[in-house]
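ASSEMBLY PREDICTION REQUEST
Request ID: AP-0331
Submitted by: J.K., bench scientist
Number of chains: two
Total residues: 699
Priority: normal
Notes: Please return the full assembly, not individual chains.
Input sequences:
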Amino acid sequence: MSATPIDLPRWADAGLVPLVSVTAALLVAGLVVLGIGESPLEATALLLKGALGSVEGLGFTLYYTTNFIFTGLAVAVAFHAGLFNIGGEGQATIAGIFLALACLWLAPLPGILLVPLAILAGAAGGALYGFIPGWLQATRGSHVVITTIMFNFLAATLSVYLLVNVMGKPGSMQAETPEFAGHAVLTPMHQLLAPLGIKLPATPLNTAFLLALAALVAIWALIYRSRLGYAIRTVGANPRAAAYAGISPARMTIVAMALSGALAGGLAVNEAMGVQHRLLIDFTAGYGFVGIAVGLMGRGHPIGVALSAFLFGVLYQGGAELSFDKPTITRDMVVVIGGVVILFAGALDGLFRKLVANTLQLGRAA
Amino acid sequence: MRVRSLALALAGVAFSALAAMAQTAIKPAVVYDKGGKFDKSFNEAAFIGAEKFKKETGVEFRDFEPTNEAQIEQALRRFARDGHSPIIAVGFSQATALQKVAAEFPDLKFTIIDMVVDLPNVQSVVFKEHEGSYLVGLLAGMASKSGKVGFVGGMDIPLIRKFACGYVQGVKAAKKDGEVFQNMTGSTPSAWNDPVKGGELAKSQIDRGADVIYHAAGGTGIGVLRAAADAGKLGIGVDSNQNALQPGKVLTSMLKRVDVATYASFKAAREGSWKPGISVLGLKEDGVAWALDDANRALITPEMKAAADKARDDIIAGTVKVHDYMSDSKCTM
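STATUS: Completed
Returned structure:
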């Protein structure tokens, strides 16, 4: 076991390694499909056709992609500061509560004020909930991995309590808030593009997708082109060196965690304001956890995050279509396929890096 | 006389032929709740009802298990677009999605379980879970030697409070000073599928003296029933008949006849007698009941059966009123 990192050319690190690991994952998933007596080729074709083969499918894929971009970026930003934020679910939950309160309380405001305010409220809620573990890590040394996991449960419990006892729609079995006012929600893509003469089928895709794209650009600029980003990356690379250079690791830890939480809040924006138009219990549905895989697979780089978010969007939408068309492939099978991708792209990453490095070296030697 | 009976017989033949002709070809479909098809409980009941229909009529049905909110609407719309009808939406969480999809496809028939959607092509089936829970509470109270019984819920949501409230009332009806321990499993969706934690909660209630434990927690309940059986105590199943999961150790099960609702909707659609509107299924309609079969017959004494039957009649007659938590979001017991 050597601890020295494997040096790879940039193109191989960012392109070849993920490609090899995803291909290997698909091969293994194919074996699983074969094992239950279905054709892997047909399954792959159905999956791709379901996710990309129609405008409607693509709309759903991009809707999922929106969720994964936000949660993936959240993980990526924390990762640059050397922190492992497992709390995307909790941060998004708190963001959802803040955002719902804004949407419901500030409803008399016109939409042009209300929508940005609600989005900011959501981001603030997420940031606050990321700030606390960050602050605990920075000042008390409580490890963020532990605290953020625990904070997920605290957020879930708080959300159940609030939605059932305080903010809930009276007389409803479902734990949810009343519906937000019509001007408090984000415009669906098919309505946005209708005046331009582009007719799209109704999908959950909404303007939060544009917000996610903007977040990608903003985070790229912040991490790679700003002093704050440089400071965050320095702390992540070597806290002692950062301190020597006059950067406070404690401060950067707190800033990175708050920023990470705010990004996770984007999940609430897309789900509550963009799709459900109300705050539902458990709206996070595991997107926060999948964001960890997205962030790691994307190497923490916004372009990588965008690509892996899209890959998971394809898996989610294509997987749903697959289990729809092939009743033998249940939703649990789809989870297995997604799990294999995460395993290969995340956990077994080092294996493929080594493999790629060896192959490249062989090529050079020859 | 003979002529008349012949005429009657002929008319009978003609009628049944007519009835056979009136059977329309249907393409039924089921969209389950996020809990999933094989939960041994709520969703599985819908599956059992659909399977029964398939066995009797040979009519195939399609089904789908959504994993998130977006997929519910997606699945309903896909089934609708393929011309499936009736489409059964299992669970209250599908109401918002169904509202949209049913309005888009006014010619198709939809049935929603556990929630009311007010549209001309939607049949809403809701159950009086509090009445069924009252009866099993009564039985629990009578079976308990310690005077202490338990309740393990999934999540602390209104529906589960409705179960708990009815149960507590039943226990108090059997033993005035009876004590009911209530625990909820968690606050995330895994609370519905965490048999280990369910077992732990049951054990802690047993440690506090409970000797009968009722669960309304989906897959979590499997662990509750097992823990009760392992400790030599009694469990009470929910939704489906779970008596046979731990034979002789499950006092009874509170049946919520989602299977009957599913079957009835398919059957009515086939016979052309399907009607939209709200049906509220309680004890009177046999929509809820308590299960008595070979697995638990030895546990139910004649007095208990008599008391439960009497309570059932009283509730149907209106002389005993079981408070419904949903009516005022309160349970003052």
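REVIEWER COMMENTS: The domain at 32-356 of chain A is CATH 1.10.3470 (ABC transporter involved in vitamin B12 uptake, BtuC).
SIGN-OFF: pending second reviewer
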